[in-house]
Fold:
Amino acid sequence: MGNPIVLIVNGSSLDLIESHIEWLRQQEVTVVAASGFKQMTQEEFERQIGQADAVIGPPAARVTLSADLMAAHPRLKVISLASSGYEWVDIEAATRLGIVVTFANTPSLSEVVADHTWGLLLAAARQIPHHHRRLQAGDATRGMGAMVWGRTLGIVGLGNIGRRVARRATGFGMTVIAAEIAPDFDYMRQHNIELVSLPELMAKADFVSIHTRLNPSTYHLIGAPEIARMKPSAFLINTARQKIVDEAALTAAILEGRIAGAAIDDPPEDPHSPLLQHPNVVFTPHIGNRVPESNDDVCRCAYNNVLAVLQGRRPDPKYLLNPEVYACGLRAAIGR
Structure:
């Protein structure tokens, strides 16, 4: 019986594979990873996963892991996500098939994404990239930004990242309001956060920061009706998943002057978006967690989750997305 095979398709894990490969080999697993996997086709993915006992995702390439694909490859025992998001996996189907699913929502990941949220907020509000581009072109003209101190911050989704963003607002003397479907009232009282409805938040906040998960109920959660409630001076910040915000509605609102600006941790869906040149808009290519210490922490968490399953142990409960799989029954032992 050979070592179990771990297929790595996650972009950050592939970036750091050279620093992890020897340690992984010492764990008696066979690692399948290549830089070209970042551009992996669906056909290549299906060929590779057919031999895998475990997969580290979500993938850098636009490949899917459907319920049918999981069912077609009975060797697959564990799907470990090197991320805090888990929309790539049909968890219900995985559970039904006896596949363990984990994620890597580490404290360091939440902290660095909160840092990036504030970096984007300040960059858009004070037009920092815009003025930098002007200086590069030899133009030292000074524009006017928006004040952050003392304003109202509205947080949509008060989970691990949202809470850390809220705590940082204290240093800016901000009023913090939040829309949250499962509020922790003790936490909100302790940190002086007011629970409001989403419509109320959109109307009251000077800065709206999105930190909810992407699922069918939050797809385009922030659409034209929600954006229409925002103040003309307000900014929208999104370091969560791109599809939570209707980009077309956001673009129209900014270009028409109905809101002040935005900062998005994803490239625009339209590569020629007029917002790329707007002084009050900032885009980054989903780099919220792209800090060496946090990336290493997240990748090692994902690997340890895989190793736990392959070695017959339960992963740490805080990283296990489908604990009910142990009651439903796991897939057959490795090598059978």
Q: What stands out?
A: The longest strand covers residues 152-156. The mean pLDDT is 95. The domain at 5-103+291-328 is CATH 3.40.50.720 (Rossmann fold). Residues 107-125 form the longest helix (19 residues).
